[in-house]
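pinned: reference chain
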Amino acid sequence: MLYGLFSRDLGIDLGTANTLVYVRGKGIVISEPSVVAIDTKTRRAFGVGVEAKAMVGKTPESIIAVRPLKDGVIADFDTVEMMLHYFIRKVHLQRLMAPHPRVVIGIPSGVTEVEKRAAKDAALSAGAREAYTIEEPMAAAIGAGLPINEPVGSMIVDIGGGTTEVAVISLGGIVVNHSIRVAGDEIDDAIIQYARRDHNLVIGERTAENAKIAAGSAYPLEEEIRVTLRGRDLLTGLPKSVEVSSVELRDAISQPVNTIVELVKTSIEETPPELVADIMEQGITLAGGGALLLGIDRRLQTELKMPVYRAEDPLTCVARGTGRVAEALHLYERALASGSELRRSG
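pinned: its structure tokens
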């Protein structure tokens, strides 16, 4: 079959907030929001990724902006298929033949077989000739450069948009694994609720996310920060802006942050002693966009009494991991999700 000669093998981090695509031999070539703008009259994609996110909250009634993944899993199959088709075609724009790459997709750990199958089916429907899945914490560990195939315990904490996943990995397999649907989106929502409750201010998701990035924190900062929230006054309906401090935001997001910290503690408590000893020596590695929350490493280090490190470029760990697996499938057979492979028929 000639497909392999004309198609590039891909690793895809299909995230709730963003989708990243890693191309064999090139690295990450696409990093765009997991958003599709759909014309409700024709059911066709009006825009995908960056273009679609720019339309959020600004579209006429006939066009809706859809985030087709919820808590890391597919909530709208047809829209995910549209999105994957767009990204696969975008990667292969210069090619004469229709692309049929091998694709490795990162999925949350603990998803059902139905959800796993949906991810592979969406990739095949979008043009892939073979589809494999790998659990996101495993992909993140590979992307972060942890020695996953060695007889050594490694702990990865992957804080994404929809889910936080904690895994202890040794000899190419996951020994302890926990996943909760509390992550970056919940932190954003906590800021939205705080603005509404304490300031009668209605703000959108993008404003909350920007405030989180600029001044959200999980641990007291050496120099506290102030940021302006802009939105609509709940009482008058008029535009309103409020200046808040990083101290106030830290208190506002304390509940989801505490939940994440407790998840890591629980995972350590369930880890075999020999592997805990390895983790105390190697430290815990943070990945995902949530790893960039100011002070999250200090908070975990203080509570757990062991070293905590941010992975290099934590936002891209899962994508880099899926890409490395796509480049050398034979080296990561144990790491791939069970029943992973699905081939295109015909």
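why pinned: The chain has a mean pLDDT of 89. The chain is about 35% helix and 25% strand.
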